[in-house]
Design a protein that fits this description.
By secondary structure, the protein is an alpha/beta fold. The chain is built from eight helices and twelve strands. A five-stranded mixed beta barrel has the order 8-9-10-12-11. Strands 2-6-1-7 form a four-stranded parallel sheet, covered by helices on one side. It has a three-stranded antiparallel sheet with strand order 3-5-4. α4 packs parallel to α6 and α5 packs antiparallel against α6.
Amino acid sequence: MTKLYLVEGLPCSGKSTTAKFISEKLSEMDKSVILVDEGSGKHPADFEFHAYVEKNDLHKFDAPLQIKIKECSELKNGGYIIDLSQFADEDLDLLIKYKIYDVLPWEVEMPQMINRWQDFAKKASYDEKVYVFNCVFLQNPMCEMMMRFNFPENESFEYISKIYQSISSLNPIVIYLKNDDIVDKVKETAKELDVGEMTLADIIEEMSKPGRDPRDEMPKQILRADVLKFEDLRDGMVLTGTVRNVTDFGAFVDIGVKHDGLVHISQLSNSFVKSPSDVVSVGDIVKVKVIGIDQERQKVQLSMKDA
């Protein structure tokens, strides 16, 4: 019996509509169905807005925040899985640096994600539910691995294969939507999202080209000869880097070492910044200063202030 349906496809291909349709048909067959759309925030097999703080790092926060972290988290895998939706203002600024998606290094993020899938499969194997997911199996991992970490296709394939092995007991079915009427869909979605048709079409075109990352065509930064690996970084260094990703809380910059560094929104400018995209875009060449190094977690904090 199939207990998991995974709906995937390019943007504008009708994933949400298809997932809803499948759920309705299964319900008509007297199945107890749980439909989980992307961005729901409470995904049973994904960490959309969660942070992971190792137990040994809990002392870095003040006592009241430590108490709240324990109250709003699950102790697992040697650390705290924290629901960030329960935090705001300064507390959120502190915890966002530990966000599982977008921030943590891959060697920390990957086991958390695999464990999440395994826990979901174990639970789903014993309940009477049928699950329908949108985007989480292919789109989310591919965006994370190929867009953020710049991993080659074969490494992405290996990771997705691990996810599949974790859920194989559920006899999952993957529905991949190929849309031949993509032009009309682009126009329709552009209207819904209030973005230009040409902008949305460019994004979809680049995503649909197999084996090619459009960022490869971006101008390359001039790297320092004395910074070849993470261990070469020093506080106060001024480096030239390329913006690889822009999020709500900052920008990730490639400075020539294995992991991109984070310029938090508060470090993007000496002036107030409402949105990081107002200051930087993917592909920009920027000067950054190293303001924090975590050798153990292989994380570097950067600043564009006075760099």
